[in-house]
Amino acid sequence: MTEPRARAARHKGQLNFEKELRGLLYAHGDDPDPLPETVRVLDEITTDFIIETCHAASRHATLNSRQKVKLEDFKFVVGKDERLLGRMTELIGMEKELKEARKGFNTDEGKIGLERGAVGKKRKRVSKGGEKGEDGEDGEDGEDGDEDMVQDALAAAAG
Q1: φ, ψ for residue 45 (rounded to 5)?
Q2: Are 106 and 119 a contacting pair, CB within 8 Å?
Q3: Above 80 in pLDDT, residue 26?
Q4: How far from 123 is each of 25, 70, 82, 134, 136, CA to CA, in Å?
Q5: Structure confidence by residue, pLDDT tens digits, 96-120
Q6: pTM of the entire structure?
Q7: What is the pLDDT of residue 81?
Q8: How far is CA 76 from the centre of its chain?
Q9: Which of 33, 56, 74, 84 is the most buried (most CB within 10 A)?
Q10: Using one digit for the tens of pLDDT, what is the confidence trace for 41-51?
């Protein structure tokens, strides 16, 4: 854990989750307009939790001789908290279900003729790792979307 004094100066004047925390406080019975100090403290706690979880996942990936942080690293880090791990697993499952449901819809209806020769064919794109695959997939057990989620979380925590 980071020292409290060092933590206070890290995010001075910057609120990352103000709107979400205000809604969360109101949903749990607080005033519709909570005290700014309350929101600030909860924002610091939330931001520190995310940053420390990302750093711990990064350490776990490094110990496993990997440069990329994978979903399994986050599962390992939050594995001690059964409730958090259960919620994380539930959200990942819901995201995969939504992804499969979106595949069922034909989204190319308005795009016919816009791309030369692309009607009825899947385009080849280069994924972030540099490997080519259909629709950006790199063929690693369908976890490409999970890795993107992890990278987005790391970028949000760093920024």
Answers
A1: -60, -45
A2: no
A3: yes
A4: 46, 26, 41, 6, 9
A5: 999 999 988 866 666 665 555 555 5
A6: 0.58
A7: 93
A8: 16
A9: 74
A10: 999 999 999 99
Per-residue tokens: 99:
């992804």
Residues 137, 131 contacting (CB under 8 angstroms) = no
CB 143 within 8 A of CB 70: yes
CA–CA separation, 55 and 29 (whole Å): 33
Contact between 127 and 136 (Cβ < 8 Å): yes
Token pair listed for 113: 């003729």
What average pLDDT does the structure give for the chain?
Answer: 78
The burial of 116, by beta-carbon neighbours within 10 Å (0-12 exposed, 13-18 middle, 19 or more buried), is given as exposed
DSSP 133: E
Residue 130: exposed, middle, or buried by beta-carbon count in 10 A (0-12, 13-18, 19+)?
exposed
